[in-house]
Design goal:
Layout lengths: L1 H17 L3 H14 L4 H13 L3 H14 L4 H13 L3 H14 L4 H13 L3 H14 L1 H14 L3 H14 L4 H15 L2 H14 L4 H13 L3 H14 L4 H13 L3 H14 L4 H13 L3 H14 L4 H8 L8 H10 L7 H17 L3 H15 L7 H14 L2 H7 L9 E6 L5 H9 L4 E3 L5 H8 L19 H16 L8 E4 L8 H7 L4 E6 L2 H9 L13 H21 L4 E5 H6 L1 H11 L46 H6 L1 H5 L3 H4 L4
Parallel strand pairs: 1-3, 1-4, 2-3, 4-5
Helix pairs in contact: 1-2, 1-3, 2-3, 3-4, 3-5, 4-5, 5-6, 5-7, 6-7, 7-8, 8-9, 9-10, 9-11, 10-11, 11-12, 12-13, 13-14, 13-15, 14-15, 15-16, 15-17, 16-17, 17-18, 18-19, 19-21, 20-21, 21-22, 23-30, 29-30
Length: 670
């Protein structure tokens, strides 16, 4: 009977470990060990369960105790070696791994672990011997490891060939699937193939948490935020004490616009592992989004404490806009720029941060130096083809001419829910959104990718590869309405209330106003404008998380602004009354009048809360999040004049556009 009880307990523990429930395995082992404290099998499984929960010192203690009872079991030596190596006690781990191999030379993973430990202490030649043994005993694992080495060394094609070779011989090798997916994701940004591989791997190994974590990250990059949440939730259920599962879930919730849930998930991750700089920064981002600036600052500083060269965390602090660095932080940033080994991205983040620092101190020459050198460093890191952009805009305007619009009008979806806010970044669009989101009938949903996705999808499955905008000529009458419904369905995933109207504040939608009008003729459009030199300077001072690649070069910026201006003039001409221009300078100078203009354009009754927009409590993701939580202020008007000596190119290029501006805009800051 006792043997059966032991076997039943072991079966429960083993099944729990296989299903990714190490806490349940631990409970089963401890229950049995109360009455049978010397059971080696249960002690070993208890050690494994503790390892799975990352409770490494406890696992070490249990495994040492088990070895004191029976030192002849090779797997116990291997497990103890693993526990020590995971704590970076490599010198201590090596003898136990060597003993495991001495007792049982056929343990393939023991050779791999010994090789890793030897490599960590600088015994490279001996490490190579162990890796060769590992490869000989487990050819598939060796081929996967070789592929990983290729990828780490930048040999992407060789890595893909290695992983595909494994899958040809064994299509069910989940390690090869996972690693090939990572290459597709990080190397090619081939998200669809990466997702397919990971979903298949997850079916084959439902309890493999690492697959769920990578799948979640891929799904976030593919803007499939709901699916990403599900993937991370599975990971967190399988391993409740895995900090990466909770931080991934926090990121997924943040991307899906569930900030409160995101905060809870990040907090759980930090309970489990407080010294993760990346998690601290993700936590800080979402605290900033909900308006908890003190909490955000504390978390950003915790990220920096854990990683002093974390330029992105410094820039995130600077990007609060209303934050000023302490002298010790400024010195630390300047010191970092003298260090060798900084990546280009880290250097760029420090330069933009110091630009903001010296602008706050009114040392505009030094601020310009850091902004300008930061932009020059960033420009080669991003892709922007001014000619391609100009040709695309020209083709859109040629397509959406008055005759085309007349021909296809009346076919779209009649819903009047969306209010699009377009323009250029750093031109006051967040202020317009906050004003509207302060109205009882409007939900602020931030920047939605729905309209650009519809445009991109139009030629996706055409055999002739015809893309937007030419592909719109092939649309049938009912297609326009279908696309309007598709936009509303996509936007619904970002909505959290039943208010009748919602904002879509993606500035880059400005070339798509004609498309919007034909699929949703009753949607409203507001063009957030600002003095061209302030708009361009705002872009030049901003390091964007992604996109807006035209902002890192002086010539690119003025060229882009001229194209933007031409596009908006076209929409005013072919769709009179569709777009309302709202100048930032006029809003600052006469807030209530502009609020009334905005509400009238949207068919909304006046509400005093829109004038008191800064009192509205809502999540704001953009760089202006802290600024729109303050009453209206004039300090940002004409800021370009502080850098006027460096802006001759813009002043000349944009002279005719500036000349047509209202006086209050043209003379702002004088």
């Amino acid at each position: 009977m006792k043997s059966e009880t032991k076997d039943a307990s072991l079966a429960i523990a083993i099944d729990a470990l296989r299903c990714g429930r190490p806490l349940r395995a631990e409970e089963s082992c401890r229950d049995y060990l109360v009455m049978n404290p010397g059971c080696i099998d249960h002690l070993r499984l208890l050690g494994k369960a503790l390892l799975k929960q990352n409770r490494l010192p406890e696992a070490e203690t249990q495994l040492r105790f088990a070895l004191s009872l029976n030192a002849g079991i090779p797997q116990l030596h291997e497990d103890l070696g693993s526990a020590l190596a995971l704590q970076k006690k490599f010198e201590e781990a090596i003898p136990f791994l060597e003993k495991a191999i001495q007792l049982e030379p056929r343990l393939p993973l023991a050779h791999k672990k010994l090789g890793q430990a030897l490599f960590a202490v600088g015994r490279g030649a001996e490490a190579d011997e162990q890796f060769e043994e590992y490869f000989d005993k487990d050819p598939e694992s060796g081929a996967v490891a070789l592929g990983m080495d290729h990828f780490k060394a930048g040999r992407k094609d060789e890595a893909i060939a290695a992983f595909r070779g494994v899958l040809r011989s064994n299509p069910d090798n989940v390690d090869a699937m996972r690693q090939l997916a990572i290459v597709y994701w990080r190397g090619d940004k081939n998200l669809s193939d990466a997702e397919a591989l990971l979903r298949r791997a997850a079916e084959k190994a439902a309890d493999f948490v690492s697959i769920r974590l990578v799948l979640g990250a891929v799904l976030i990059d593919a803007n499939k935020h709901t699916d990403a949440i599900e993937s991370y939730e599975v990971a967190a259920k399988l391993e409740p004490d895995n900090p990466a599962a909770w931080s991934g879930l926090g990121n997924a919730y943040a991307q899906a616009s569930y900030p409160e849930k995101s905060i809870s998930a990040f907090a759980k991750s930090l309970e489990l592992q407080s010294d993760s700089p990346a998690t601290q920064m993700g936590y800080a981002h979402v605290l900033k989004t909900v308006g908890d600036q003190p909490g955000a600052v504390k978390a950003y500083r915790a990220a920096i404490a854990g990683k002093p060269n974390f330029g992105e965390a410094y820039w995130s602090l600077a990007n609060l806009k209303v934050f000023e660095f302490e002298e010790s932080e400024v010195s630390a940033m300047e010191k970092q720029l003298t260090q060798s080994g900084l990546t280009d991205s880290e250097e760029v983040h420090f330069r933009f941060s110091l630009g903001k620092t010296y602008e706050d101190r009114k040392d505009y020459e030094r601020a310009w130096h850091y902004y300008d050198t930061g932009n020059k460093k960033q420009r080669p890191l991003v892709s922007h083809d001014p000619l391609e952009m100009e040709l695309r805009h020209a083709e859109i305007l040629k397509t959406f001419d008055p005759a085309f619009i007349r021909e296809h009008s009346g076919n779209g979806c009649d819903a009047a829910d969306p209010i699009l806010i377009v323009g250029l970044p750093r031109s006051g669009s967040t202020l317009v959104e906050q004003i509207l989101a302060s109205h009882s009938q409007v939900e602020g949903t931030s920047e939605l990718p729905a309209l650009s996705k519809i445009a991109a999808s139009m030629g996706r499955y055409r055999p002739d590869d015809m893309q937007f905008p030419r592909a719109v000529h092939e649309l049938r009458g009912k297609d326009w309405r279908a696309y309007g419904m598709q936009y509303l369905e996509a936007a619904q995933r970002h909505r959290q209330s039943d208010r009748p109207f919602f904002t879509d504040k993606l500035p880059n939608n400005f070339p798509l106003v004609g498309l919007l009008h034909l699929i949703l003729p009753n949607a409203k459009v507001i063009n957030a404008r600002r003095h061209p030199l302030d708009s361009c300077m705002g872009g030049y001072k901003q390091l964007f998380a992604r996109g807006q690649n035209f902002t890192y070069d002086l010539a690119d910026l003025s060229h882009y602004y001229r194209n933007y201006d031409a596009v908006m003039k076209h929409w005013h001409e072919v769709l009179p009354g569709k777009v309302l221009d709202v100048h930032y300078e006029e809003t600052v100078s006469d807030l209530e009048s502009q609020v009334r203009r905005i509400l009238d354009h949207c068919g909304l009754p006046f509400e005093e809360s829109c004038v008191r927009f800064h009192e509205t409590k809502r999540a704001v993701k953009t760089a202006s999040s802290e600024q729109v939580r303050q009453p209206i202020y004039s300090g940002a008007l004409g800021k370009w004049r502080k850098y006027q000596g460096h802006l001759d190119m813009w002043i000349e290029d944009l002279d005719d556009i500036i000349a047509d501006l209202p006086d209050v805009v043209r003379n702002a800051g004088v």
